[in-house]
Structure formats: C-alpha cells, structure tokens
Amino acid sequence: MKHIFAVALGVLTAIGGFVDIGDLVTNALVGSRFGLSLAWVVVVGVVGICVFSEMSGRVAAVSGRATFDLVRERLGPRVGLANLVASMAVTFLTFIAEIGGVALALELATSVNEVLWVPVVAAVLWIVLWRVRFKVLENVFGLLGLALVVFAVALWQLNPDWGGLWQQVTSPMPTPGEGWAQYGYYAVALFGAALTPYEVFFFSSGGVEERWTAKDVGTMRVNVFLGFPLGGLLSLSIAAVAAVVFLPAEVQVEALAQVPLPVALALGKLGLAIALIGFFAATFGAACETGLSVGYSIAQFYGWRWGKFVPPRQAARFHLVVLLSTVLAVPVLLTTVDPIAVTEYSVVFSALALPLTYLPILVIANDPDYMGERVNGRLANALGTVYLVVIVVVSVAAIPLMIITKGGQ
Amino acid sequence: MTARAAVAVLAVAALVGCATPEGDPGAYRDEALSTLKAAHSAVEWVHITVGARLDDKIFARSADDCVSSAEDSLSGAAGTFVGLQPPRSSDEVRDAATKLLSDAQDAVEDARIAVRRDDRAAMRQAYTAVAHASQALGRAAEELP
Amino acid sequence: MTPLRASYDAGLHLLDRQIVDHEDLPVANVDDIELLERADGRLAVSALLTGPGALGPRTPGRLGSWTVAVWRRLRPDPDPRPGRIEARLVTHTDSAVHVSARARDLSVDGFEQWARAQVIEKIPGAGRAD
User: What is the ipTM of this complex?
Assistant: First the structure.
C-alpha cells in the first residue's frame, strides 16, 4: 500500500499539468473539433515533461536544491528576474483559474453559482495549504484525481470504431472545416500544457519537501515515468470520448458542462458523478499545486526559507506570499471572468517562461558541482537538447498563432 | 497619409481581422454560415442532453445546466447576427438565416421548459423539434441562398 | 567541495547561490559580494551581501534604483548597509554556500521577522511543521 502512495507526488503533479481546468475543456474541445489528430502532440509532450522532470527531480534528490534555486544562479539576476516574472504570471494566473475551476466543478454538482463558491473555495484551499500535511495533500488529491480514469472506462463502454479512431491518430492534419492555423494553435496549446513550468517547480520542490536524497532517485523516476504518462492518458481519454460523441454531431465543446456528457451517455449517472468528483479533485489539486508553486518560486528566487516541512513561523515570507496570492485571487474571480479565459491569457506568458525555465535545468543537470556522479548521461542530454529546440520553436510560434486564430477560433 | 501610416492602418486592420460585413455580400454570407454553425453546435448539444435525460443517464440538474447554457450561447450568437446591417443584395440570406435561428431558439426554449419541469412528454416533443432544427441547421451550408 | 581559500571564479561559484546554515536550511541568497584588496594586490571575498540593498544595485534600470530607494526608506538608519555575512563563517560550497552559524544569529532577514511578527504568528498553528 505504501508503494502506491510513493508515486502520489508524480500523479498529483501530472494531474495539475494535464487535466487542470483549462485542459479539461481544451482536451474535450480538441477532441470535438480535431478528433484524435492531435494525439501525437500529447505523446510528444509527455516524453518532454518526463525528460525534464526526471532531471529536475534528480537535481532535487542529489543536491537538495529545487528548480527555481537554479534558475537565478544560472541565468543571473536580470534574466532570472524576467523568468520569475513570466513564470509567476503563468503560475498565478493558473492559480486564479484553478480556484475558479473548483467553483465551476462545484456549480456543476450543486447548481449554486460559481461566483458564490469562490470565496468559500479560496478559504478552504488556504486552510488546506496551511494545515494539511504535504504527504496527505499528495495522496488525497492524487488518488481522487484518478477518478478521471472514468473517461477511459467510458471510451471502452461506448464501443467506438477503433479503426476510425486510429485513423485519426495517424492523420496529423486538420479535420474538414479547420485550418492549419487552428491546428497549429491547438498543437502549441497542448504542448504548452504538458510542459507548464509549474510542474517542474512543484515536482522538484515536492521532492525537497519529501526530503529526497540520492537514494531516492529510483523512487523519483517511478514517480515521473508513472505519473506523467498517466496524466497524458487522462488527457487523451477526455479528447477521445469527445471525438466519439461530439465530433460526428458537430458539437464544438466550449463549456465545462459539456465535458462529462460522453461519460454520462456511456455509464449513466454513476459515471457522471465520478467524473464530477474527478473534476473537483483535479482542479483542487491543481490549485494546491499552483498556489504552493507561487510561494516556492518567489521564495527560492530570493533565497528565503520555504516549504511545509518547516513550521510556518520559520518560513514566514513563503506563507505570506501564499496567503496574499489566495486573497488576491478572490476579487479577480468576483469580476465573473471566465476561469477558462484566464488560462488562455496565461499561454502568452508561458511562451516566454518555457525556454527560460528548461535551459537552466539542462545546464545544472550536467554540472558535477551539483550532481557529483549523477550528471546527465548521453540520452538525457540528447533528448534534453532536442526538446529545448522544440520548446523555443513553440515559444516563438505561440503568440502569432494566438493572434491569427483569435484564440483558436 | 504617409506610406508608413497607411501600412500601420492596414496592419492594425489585418490584426483585428474584421471587414464589416455591411458592404460585402460574401463576408455577410460567411458570417451567416459561421453563426449557423455555432447555432448547430448549441442545438445538437441540447439534442444530446435531452436524449440523455430521457434515458435517465444524467441528473435533472445537469440537464438543466446544459440546456440553459446552450440556450444562452444560441441567443448570443443569434443576437449578434441579427444586429448586423445586411448589404442590399443579401436580404434572402438574412431571411433564411434568421428563420433557421428563430426556429432553433423556439425548439431550445421548449426543451429548457420541459427539462426544468421534468415533464417527460414535453421532453419527447422537444427532442423531436430540436432534432429537426439541428438537421435544418446542418444543411444550411448547402441550402443557404 | 571548493574551499574558500583557493583562487576561483566568485561569479560562478558564489554569486546568486543559496546560503544555507549548519542545519542545511536556507538562510538567504548571495545577492552581492564584498571584496577587499589584499596586500599582494589580489582580491579576496570578505563578506556575502544579501537583501534588497545588495540585489537592488545589481538589478538594471528603473527597477533596480526603485528597489534601492524603497529599501533605504524602510530602514531606520540614515545610511543603511545591506545584510552582511562574514566570509570567515563560510565552511564550504557545493550546490549551496554553507555557513557555520545559525540563521537567527546572522540577522539578515528583516522582512522575515516582520512577516513573522505581523502576520504569521497571528494565525493559529504557526508553530507546527508538517
């Protein structure tokens, strides 16, 4: 039993990265408009995040330093600050969106308006971040988030034309009625979702929270190679059921309420209830992940003491940042802004933050000062370099595509 | 206007990406088609939802949420289109499109009322009406003048 | 492990590194370095500087001068010095700079103390770790 929970960190990180509120809708949208023709992007993204989180996890285990520690050290204060600002924008905007996402999930379950839930969710979330042990947080939300596996079960139950689906997977081109610009935009969005910087911040900081040492590199790797592919699978399941139910009906997914419908069609009310639980757990887990990551990044950049493994009074600035972020999120959401629209704005900052985040990781993972004998092997370096090039290309393409397609239309 | 200013204006216009459909029949027809496509999506969503409710596969509350959201989305799209000033030669397009949209809105409204009342007989009627509206919208691309 | 006595690249091995205390817990970051010129003309590190007073001057442009201005405002003394850790307290450097003192004896964390006193201590449960 203990071994199942040993991978909870990887699973929770992956959930926050692959099925947060923005991705829940984006994956269904992609399935409803493009079928599975963008599935290859998710696979490429999963490999990429595995490569870099293994590196950052290894750094955390061997040196005890989490990722943002390294960013400033390798990039210097000026570029490091640019990265901090860009990463903070992404992480903080996503944090706001996730709180809104939890409220949306609760609205789906209870019909109480989202805006009314926002202050409640923010308060409960902050109390959880203040009092609940990191390990418990991991285990509870990591496990509950796996309720989203119901999408894969629903896919099986719908008994789709597997040949047709495979045909979509192997035809990486826009479906009729969509253009290459739209295809490219969503390819960039899915890739960016798989490699969001806060995943490595959270994973490496979580490793330090768990007091990983060099002996734990094996456990760390299990976390990575189990957690992220699982996240990718959940992503693909959501897209696949949407492809089966919505694509032929020409329904374009735009709201969270549409996302669990295929599960209801396949598995009835029980399936729907499980999906809603999954939404709640995934968005709440993502809110924890992004909320803590805001604190981790700022504290690590400035060298403050941080983490839940020390009493709060010893990490006062860290907890102050987390508290302030939670408090500031509420008025933003009370303007009734759509949380999913908020995640779309964060794409812009992601474009800047991605290369600046992953380059230092690649550099440090090769530094014997930090890593001793555990420096990168040739495979890690080869993959890391290739992905860094891909990341730069994606970063450059992101904003033009966003403008040309007006956000994916 | 200097050449630079002209280029700047053109660039801004290209970025904003809109030529008002008022003057251009082709653009107006494109607007109509894209509105009808969005309407088709909303109506088909209602179709699936009502069907699921009739099969007792979703909760009454979820069905209500879905149908209400679809109705809002539909009236938003329809309202935007109806507010556009049509070019002189496009009155036929306008008439055809607004008829399709108003039929769709009626059907969806009936569905919403039936779902909220949890009235199965009314839901069955609405299901058929919505299916018809959806099919008509689906054919719009070929049949629009 | 690089002993501080050898000649080496302070920019690479010291600047912007995490400083940790004897319990391996973070203290601050090396925001700047204080150098002194020895009799033989070589430079040696005399202290590590930390805090907005040290980082501000290294941050370019408006942001840097603004940081320094705000920091000076918030300090009671007319000519404030940045947080300072004597070089002799440094034991070794690996992925971080290790110092032999306890964090609270170094008194480089005014903001932390303020945050602790004004906000964190007032919330129940501030003394319990995970």
Answer: 0.87
